[in-house]
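Customer escalation, tier 2.

The customer says the design service returned an amino acid string that "doesn't look like it belongs to this structure." They asked us to rerun it and document both sides in this ticket. The original structure tokens are below, unchanged.
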């Protein structure tokens, strides 16, 4: 029917199964793109997989031809766990469109402005927690994203000791991430395994799916019901949940959309902030330059807000560099082609899994010199303003086309607020050994899950001076 895109030679029967990496899919697939070009074809146990390794290819197929590339691959685990109420997994069609529209309306740039006060309050709470117990920074960051999403979505205030809500959020994100990682469950490649009993070797996925199915529906219901209970007791706080209901959406839809926000939103932004902390500990000069800019524009007597972003090009560039340096979703979320298509003379067969290697885009040396180095300057012109000629990572790390991340504006606003506030008040540095010598921070940044988190690491976080300490303490009263 046509010439398939180039790729490693397949083995009989299993095809390219051995070429499908188990770890850091972004890096391994980039290796294939360097060898075969920006469209690579793999056949994995009968399934066509197409890897797009350049921005141009991604824009051409995912955006210009988005009608053909907006479906999601069929997933055995999503079916077994009934998880397609999380509309990230929904097939392209009317139901997905209804969910997407409801979601999208809540995260338009005009709505994101309305969430600023909550984001600010939660960020100030994070600063106070970092002051009190800096060694628990990782917990505080996770907690703060769970808190801001809970508040905006359900109108519920997450108090410091509330571990239940926090755990629910973590569990929801964990299961969703696991299921959306290609290659994670063997049954996806061998659907005949569906017919083997759960107690036989290899049948464990059935038990796991059964458990997750119950767990995840219970989490969704618990989040929703506890928000309703709180409203009964404390009165109604406007939230996405109340607005969806007021807009006439049925309860099922409101429940599903709100839990999706939680599942897709909290952990992704959290991974970016961990990467930010790591980058600051490793690159003190960058940190100092951002602090000098914040001192000049914001001054020592108040904390930065989103309104300051335009006047803080270096800090803004720093946040862009965080998104580029640590790509949270290295291979995005897989799309599926609906019909046969042709690109650069190659056939892309109907039903192919199509992956954009966002990690490869972030390592494009023609665009970013020394891509492994954390360097916000790469986004700036000589006059210190943002350089529109350098590709902005926000044009690809949030995906492409009709499935592009609908939480993009909210995530960017959260990231800016958190990074600027921490930079303005704290100094982040590597941990020291017994002799007081800074330890080298060699942290593995690429997990093999769909959402990539830097491995656990330690660092020191201390207030910049006594004035900043007071500034942070003062936020408790406001
Ligand atoms: C740093 C933060 C974030 C990153 C890097 C990120 C990245 C992504 C990516 C790569 C996709 C797949 C797009 C595609 O299929 O081409 C996606 C989808 C999605 N994201 Fe995000 N995201 C982030 C934050 C958020 C937040 C805060 C929310 C919610 C408030 C959110 C909600 C969603 C949803 C619901 C989808 C599925 C869209 C669909 O299938 O139609 N994300 N995100």
């Amino acid at each position: 029917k046509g010439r398939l895109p180039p790729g490693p030679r397949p083995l009989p029967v299993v095809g390219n199964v051995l070429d499908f990496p188990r770890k850091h899919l972004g890096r391994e697939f980039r290796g294939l793109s360097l060898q075969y070009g920006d469209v690579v074809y793999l056949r994995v146990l009968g399934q066509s997989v197409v890897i797009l390794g350049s921005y141009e290819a991604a824009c051409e197929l995912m955006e210009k031809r988005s009608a053909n590339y907006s479906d999601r691959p069929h997933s055995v685990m999503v079916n077994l766990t009934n998880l397609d109420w999380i509309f990230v997994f929904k097939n392209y069609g009317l139901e997905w469109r209804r969910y997407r529209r409801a979601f999208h309306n809540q995260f338009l740039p005009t709505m994101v402005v309305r969430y600023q006060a909550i984001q600010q309050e939660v960020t100030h709470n994070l600063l106070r927690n970092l002051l009190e117990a800096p060694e628990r920074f990782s917990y505080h960051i996770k907690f703060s994203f769970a808190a801001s999403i809970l508040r905006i979505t359900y109108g519920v205030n997450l108090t410091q000791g509330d571990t239940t809500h926090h755990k629910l959020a973590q569990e929801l994100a964990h299961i969703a991430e696991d299921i959306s990682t290609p290659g994670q469950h063997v049954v996806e490649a061998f659907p005949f395994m569906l017919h083997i009993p759960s107690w036989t070797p290899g049948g464990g996925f059935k038990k796991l799916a059964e458990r997750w199915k119950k767990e995840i529906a219970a989490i969704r219901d618990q989040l929703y019901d506890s928000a309703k209970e709180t409203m009964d007791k404390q009165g109604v706080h406007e939230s996405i949940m109340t607005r969806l209901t007021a807009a006439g959406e049925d309860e099922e839809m409101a429940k599903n959309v709100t839990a999706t926000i939680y599942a897709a939103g909290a952990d992704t932004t959290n991974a970016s902030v961990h990467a930010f902390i790591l980058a600051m500990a490793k690159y003190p000069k960058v940190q100092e330059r951002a602090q000098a800019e914040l001192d000049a524009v914001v001054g020592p007597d108040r904390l930065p807000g989103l309104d300051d972003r335009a006047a803080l090009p270096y800090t803004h560039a720093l946040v862009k560099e965080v998104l580029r340096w640590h790509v949270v979703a290295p291979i995005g979320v897989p799309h599926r082609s609906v019909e046969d298509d042709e690109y650069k003379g190659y056939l892309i067969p109907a039903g192919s899994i199509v992956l954009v290697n966002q990690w490869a885009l972030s390592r494009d040396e023609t665009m970013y010199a020394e891509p492994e180095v954390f360097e916000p300057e790469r986004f700036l012109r000589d006059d210190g303003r943002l350089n529109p000629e350098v590709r902005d990572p926000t044009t690809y790390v949030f995906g492409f086309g009709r499935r592009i991340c609908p939480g993009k504006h909210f995530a960017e606003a959260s990231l800016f607020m958190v990074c600027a506030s921490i930079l303005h008040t704290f100094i982040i540095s590597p941990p020291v050994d017994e002799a007081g010598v800074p330890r080298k921070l060699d942290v593995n940044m690429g997990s093999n899950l769909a959402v990539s988190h830097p491995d656990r690491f330690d660092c020191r976080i201390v207030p910049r001076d006594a004035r900043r300490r007071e500034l942070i303490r003062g936020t408790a009263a406001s």
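Tier 2 assessment: The sequence is consistent with the input. The pocket of protoporphyrin IX containing FE is lined by residues 87-88, 100, 103, 107, 260-261, 264-265, 268-269, 272, 328-329, 332-333, 335, 397-400, 403-407, 410-411 (CB under 6 Å). Residues 251-282 form the longest helix (32 residues). Sent an explanation to the customer and offered a walkthrough call.
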